Amino acid sequence: MNLFLQSLIDALSFAGVYALIALGIALIFGVMNLVNFAHGELVMVAGYVFFLLQGAPWPLVIVATVCAAVITALLMERVAFRPVRSADPTTLLVTSFAVSFLLQSIAMLTMGARPKSIEVPAFVGESIAIGGLRVPKLELVTIALAFVLLMALNVFLRRTALGRQMRAAAEDFQMARVLGVRADTIVAMAFALSGILAGCLAVIYVAQTASVSPVIGLQLVLIGFVSTVIGGLGSLEGAAIGGFVLGFLTVMIQTILPPELRGYRDAVVFAIVITILLIRPHGLLGSLRRSDYL
Amino acid sequence: MASSDRSGARTICDLMGKAAIFQRGFNQAWVWSWPAFALVFLLGFIVFLAGAGSPYLQRTVTAMLINVCIVVGFYLFVGNSGIFSFGHISFVAIGAYVSGLLTIAPDTKHILLPNLPAVMAGWELSTPAGIAVGGLAAAAMAAVLAVPLMRMSGIGASIATLGVLIIVIVVIGNLTSITGGLSGMLGLPLDTTMSSALLCACIAIAGAYIFQRSGSGLLLRASREDVAAATSLGINIWRERSIAFVLSAFLTGLGGGLFGHFVGAINPDAFYVGMTVTVSAMLIIGGVRSLTGAVLGTILVSALTEILGNTALFHLPIPPGVSTVALATLMLGILIFRPQGITSGAELKWVDPRGLGAWLSSRLPAARVRPGESGR
Hints:
Radius of gyration of chain B: 25 Å
Largest sheet of chain A: 2 strands, antiparallel
Helix content of chain B: over 70%
Oligomer: heterodimer
């Protein structure tokens, strides 16, 4: 029972992080059909800002980290994605691939290819005992932060004018524009939101690994792709649920697979992804809207 | 006498007629195949020049020719089908590893890969045969993958191919007894020369060009422009895509074999995102939709990387990594300002030498036809 509860908490903290990444990618896919390969690079840039500001008061560092991710996201949109916005989804995907490569190579050039270690406060490594379980504080913080962010995003998307416009744009961008939704504002807003998610993720990531390197983006963006595919590309709820499903799947596969096969975990995950793309191209939940990009 | 004269004249007329038909056929064949020949000549010329250069230059040119083979194979699928694949480097990996397993001498294999299954331990082929079998193995894998993958389109297909790359790399990294795992496979015979790489690049160019002008290639290009219209015309898109996928995997696999025998030691990391980025950049910069673009892009990117990576050339301290930033910037700039690459998706056009004078004079400012003289 204890083992089960322990795995459950592990799975929840994984799932929360995965849902944050997936939402960042799904938000942008929703408004402009762009599968943003460069989303992971937002986390990487924010991670380096965290590294550079070490020693400053913690709240300041965290705010600056999130701001850095938002600014990078907005710049990315303005410089690279706005000129190609009307191109087909494949061109958009390739463009984001190029942006990701550019940011990575700049990071390698300026910061070096080796990982930089970051000092995190001691309490991050501590754990607390709850009824016989030893739960790392970081996992609790992660779960709480993911929960708060998801709720805040939910309120924003459902209760505010901008959020509703964004959901409308995600449903049908052309129709939303005809009805007076401003395309530039909505797209920039989507990027800013994905920047906030990426910034918070960077804080969690740095606290978990205590290091940052130019190549951390890839693993994160892959997780995001898989989650959005599981939940159905273009659906925000789907992406969050996809993130949770993937988080649980990862912990499950890790526990179920015999140790000598653990190395194949990613292969198993991607085999599942390809199967889902084949038999349920609109995600496991199967969004009702028939999309034309799959 | 008179009658035989007449028959002689008839024979001559007949022959002249046939010659004219042959001449026309030859002209058509020449104009038809011109872009492929031009590219082969271009590569041949580069090799000819490099033949007089230093061994270092020859190595650079060989690496470029291997990339031509890989990029042209990659183009054969991406350019004709319109689906951007992130998985083609897995075929490069398969080509390199299969060729390596087949060509490393059994004694060496016994030491380097002690847990190799007995069947594989005995394999020994010559390098050309190994590379060819490597290409065939990649094609065979593509044929199996095509059954599910080629049913998808657009972004779904791109993400699925990315999945294939990750699966292949993870499997190679973990099958330690066969592939040497993460530390890689050593001791591949270093048999790739400039001429063998040139040969493979020419095979790739010829193959890609014949495919894109074949019935299957034209049907596939039609489906690239409009899936729904192509389907309604009765085109079996899955079939045409699969043909392109398998051919493309064969050529990329050949490139992989060449690469393996060029560097001598391979590991799964070499065939991951880094190579995917480089190969994609070459194709995107040149122009995704033309064979000319694939070849020119490879030449351009190779030259750029070499010049920026070679600090001695300018006597300037260019820090390592500048060439990658330049490559990324160039790729992004091309995507934004000229999405179909430097060739804009066009092939080289044959210019009839007889028309060249007229064409030139129409272009030269001095000879521009004034309004009153039009029609001359």
